[in-house]
Specification:
Blueprint (H helix, E strand, L loop, with lengths): L4 H9 L4 E6 L4 H12 L3 E7 L1 H10 L8 E4 L3 H13 L5 E4 L4 H8 L13 E10 L2 E8 L9 H17 L6 E5 L10 H14 L7 E6 L1 H5 L1 H6 L12 E3 L3 H15 L3 E6 L5 E2 L7 H14 L5
Parallel strand pairs: 1-2, 1-4, 2-3, 4-11, 6-9, 7-8, 7-9
Antiparallel strand pairs: 5-6, 5-10
């Protein structure tokens, strides 16, 4: 069972090198991401974008551009389209967003005719390496990157996607907390109603491969000590592996709080497409980007 990003990276090194398409690789940090992934024995980069810019960046790293595959593309739209074409043909196994808008890349990925759809809902899951109640673990937050205000049915599929990720990391039956601000049903707070419904669906076998509990406030989801202070000692309190958030705003804010307030390592992946899609923020560290690439390598395509 993988509990740290170092273990994710080691697992990725134990697999064949993945072909990593870096979309709009026009900034030093995007080129460095590919080079580090190659140095670590995780992936071989394919740089997509303005050829002259990419060649200059490689020379600045003391490298000969002739030793790398560069796919020329003029502008964000063209780069995103070329990346999707490479993935559809099997020439790219992971897509990494470079110096372009997430919406531009995802629009090409989600194109019904020429994109990377599989018939499954796509969703983003961010993993953060945290220490709670003295224990280090990878805790997931979903979905802060793709689905804006998901319905109960969409949340059901988002949970399935996240559970698949954790299963690939060795967690056979991960625990999922459906987050809200309280741990009981209040009809005026939709997330509490959804939490109870998703827990029911899980108990009835309609969300297999995990244990769903909800609604739960964040403290009860991740801390047994908090449960004891509140006098709540139900099974699973404080043991969540995956946090299902009510909306993209909540997921985005919670995910970025790990980086900016806690300084912990993160990595995230969009699953449900023909290949893993990595959409790191432009401010993420090289280490976090490598975590995402390693995660994409280990998780791969979760649905056939």
């Amino acid at each position: 069972m993988i509990k740290r990003f170092q273990e994710v990276r080691e697992a990725a090194k134990g697999q064949p090198l993945k072909k990593l398409a870096i979309v709009s690789a026009h900034a030093p940090h995007t080129v460095r991401s590919g080079l580090i992934a190659q140095e670590e024995g995780i992936a071989v980069p394919i740089f997509i974008g303005e050829r002259e810019t990419i060649e200059t960046l490689l020379r600045n790293e003391g490298l000969d551009p002739k030793n790398f595959r560069i796919e020329a593309a003029d502008g964000e739209e063209a780069a995103a389209l070329r990346a999707v074409e490479l993935a559809r043909s099997g020439e790219a196994e992971i897509l990494l967003k470079g110096n372009l808008s997430t919406s531009v890349l995802m629009k090409k990925v989600l194109n019904k005719e020429a994109g990377l759809r599989t018939g499954h809902l796509l969703s983003d899951i961010l993993l953060a390496e945290v220490k709670v109640d003295g224990n280090v673990k990878l805790i997931g937050v979903t979905d802060g990157g793709v689905n804006i205000l998901p319905s109960v049915e969409e949340k059901r599929v988002i949970i399935l996607n996240a559970a698949k990720v954790y299963q690939r990391l060795g967690h056979s039956n991960p625990r999922v907390a459906v987050l809200s601000c309280i741990e009981y049903i209040n009809e005026k707070i939709h997330s509490t109603v959804d939490g109870a419904e998703l827990q029911r669906l899980n108990r009835e076998g309609n969300i297999p491969g995990c244990v769903v509990q909800g609604p739960l406030a964040l403290d009860l989801a991740v801390s047994k000590a908090a449960g004891e202070l509140k006098g709540i000692q139900d099974e699973g309190i404080g043991e969540a592996d995956i946090l299902l958030v009510p909306s993209i705003e909540a997921g985005n804010i919670l995910g970025k709080s790990f980086t900016y307030f806690s300084g912990v390592q993160v990595g995230h992946i969009v699953v449900g497409a023909q290949v893993p899609v990595l959409i790191p923020s432009r401010a993420e560290t090289e280490e976090d980007r490598l975590n995402s690439i390693a995660l994409g390598s280990v998780v791969g395509r979760v649905f056939d």
